[in-house]
Amino acid sequence: MTRSIASLLLLGASGDLSGRLLLPAIGQLLDHEESPREVLLVGAGSEDWTADAWQRRVRTSFSDGRVSDEALQSVLATTRYTQADVTSAAQLQALIDSCPTAPALYFALPPTVTVAACKALQQVSLPEGTNLVLEKPFGINQESAASLNQLLAELVPEDQVHRVDHFLGRSTVLNLLGVRFANRLFEPVWSNEHIERVDIVFDEQLTLENRARYYDHAGALMDMIQSHLLQVLALTAMEPIARADAMDLRDAKAQVLRACRPWDGDPVGAGRQARYSRGSIDGRAVPDYTAEPGVDPARNTETLAELIVEIDNWRWSGVPFRLRSGKALRARRKEVLVTFKQLPHLPIGLRGEALQDRLRLSMGPDRMALEMNVNGPSDPLQLDRVSLDTDMNPGRLPAYGEVLAGVLDGDPLLSVRGDTAEECWRIVDPVLQAWREGKVAMDSYAAGSDGPSNWA
Q1: In angstroms, rounded to a whole number, what is the distance separating the alpha carbons of residues 289 and 209?
Q2: Is the whole model's pTM more than 0.70, yes or no?
Q3: Residue 62 vs residues 20, 23, 69, 106: alpha-carbon distances, Å
Q4: 408 near 8, Cβ under 8 Å?
Q5: Looking at the domain that runs over 170-394+413-446, which CATH code has it been given?
Q6: Tens digit of pLDDT for each residue in 167-221?
Q7: What are phi and psi of 80, to 5 degrees?
Q8: What residues are annotated to the active site?
Q9: CB-hemisphere CA count at 13 Å for 154?
Q10: Residue 229 — φ and ψ, nearest 5°?
Q11: Cα dist. 353→381, 387, 456 in Å?
Q12: Domain map of the chain by residue range?
């Protein structure tokens, strides 16, 4: 059965984000869903493109996403593009009025332009059911995030605001929930009674990749830890939920984030920062970060950040959560690593070291590995180390495709709620301020290494 037509109004359609990620995701969404979906794609941007130029853009993007010709033709048959000033109320009204159904407005725009466009929407008559979709960053600090949330609340209800965190697609979220809450083995030991520490790591081999315009103003702490990794922390540490739906999930995440703070309440001692210098990754020469095109060395931007936070509640009190993210590192690593406490006693007669049990939950691709001790192959009294590994369901869609499906279906399950966006800023704001004031040294590491040699 075919769903009713969905209108997707893509603001910033001529930009890099639209061509590289959003358009391929639309095609993949149409290709992989079991129930056919009809989408009217309306592009708006600053470029003066003809209809043919827009059709070429769609064709190229769909081709990059390996989308079937059937899905491509279904979009090409109805899609259109308009050159527009997306900060003009009159032009936004015309764009919205041209959609046959209440549209989802996707702001594929720089943050300042997104705010200006939202202010213009205050003078626009929005159809009931309009959804607003925003990319990170949601503001630049807690105060600006609160201001943006207030503006959005004047436009549509909170459940119709989708703050996109493509890092957490539906499959990754549900895999984390499945491990936590569908296994009696884990939930009874998921607390400070049995867990010593939790590491949430996103190490990249990628360098700046021509993103200086954004990244050199943000840095690793703001780009990844403030948004993505704190959301992963919330999923990892939240209390059991009654229903796997948007209301329960987002309430539980908010409860965790409200209890978070830098370790020991010390924004100076809880974090550290570093920046990559010249090196090589897989044989590819990498220049010093400050020599990358578009970088201003005076900004003193970090490319590797670590922040240790604590969750001030009964379940997690005393357990450090280490959040780490960086660029130009030796190995790609995206995972939640749960380290259990050391055994209180090893029976006399068993030989070898009983290492701590560790659970690795890798993301992209999603995998699980439980590292534990067993008897050795030749001497049953000699301990050996094994890892029980399995792949987890990757889902049918890439992360952006899953996010778009939620937007078009009006399901905010994968969206960041306004209050949690503000809480994430509350946690990192004092750390960012300490770094700006020079209270934390900027360490250095060679591109292609594991990080600074003085970091444990």
Answers
A1: 11
A2: yes
A3: 10, 7, 9, 18
A4: yes
A5: 3.30.360.10
A6: 777 778 888 899 999 999 999 999 999 999 999 999 999 999 888 988 999 999 9
A7: -150, 165
A8: 228
A9: 12
A10: -70, -30
A11: 11, 16, 22
A12: 6-135, 170-394+413-446
